[in-house]
Structures are given as C-alpha cells and as structure tokens.
Amino acid sequence: MQNVTVKRSALSDRVATAYRDLFSDLPVINGQVVYPQMPKFQLDYFVQQTLDRHYLVQLQFKAPAGSAPMTVVGHLKQDTAGHLILKQSHTLATIVIPELLRSIQRAK
Hints:
Low-confidence stretches: none
Mean pLDDT: 83
CATH class of the largest domain: Mainly Beta
Number of strands: 7
CATH topology of the largest domain: SH3 type barrels
Order of helices and strands: HEEHEEEEE
CATH architecture of the largest domain: Roll
Number of domains: 2
Radius of gyration: 16 Å
Shape: globular
C-alpha cells in the first residue's frame, strides 16, 4: 500500500512539473520557474514589509545565465547588526544579501 502512495506522489510531482513547463508564461530552467528581476525599490519595500509583518516569504536569488536560480522559503529576520537572515526551520538559516535577490513573494 505504501508503494502505491509513493508512486502516486511521484506521478503528481511529474504532472505538476509538466503542467508548469507547458502552460507557464514565465521561463522554466531545470523545472524551476524563473521570476522576473524586481527593481531595487520594490525589493527594498517588500523586504521591509516582510520584516514588519513577519510574513512567510519565498525568495529567489540571482543565478548565472542558463542555470536555475535558487528559491528558498522561510521567515525573514534582521539581527542587531542589520544582516538579513532567512529562518527556514529551527536548524536551518540562510544569510541573505539583498543585492543577490531576484524576487520576493509572500508564500501561502
């Protein structure tokens, strides 16, 4: 029974990826949707809004041409020195450099 469940979830993932590849207006690289580069003022505004309202966000970082950008989800926090830290879990955190951000979106 467990094997059937695993196969169904793997099939669901493949169907979702194929659907995204076929019907997305955004470019897709290695199964990863590439969001447009946000202007600096918009990134700054969204980062400040995220810090103030404690939103769960999805960040996408810049990548070299032809490679998939890294996308991470978590809560953005700021330490006393002003560094941005994305807390993904209790044990995993990512230091965020605003100049390397491509886009920020509120996660659902």
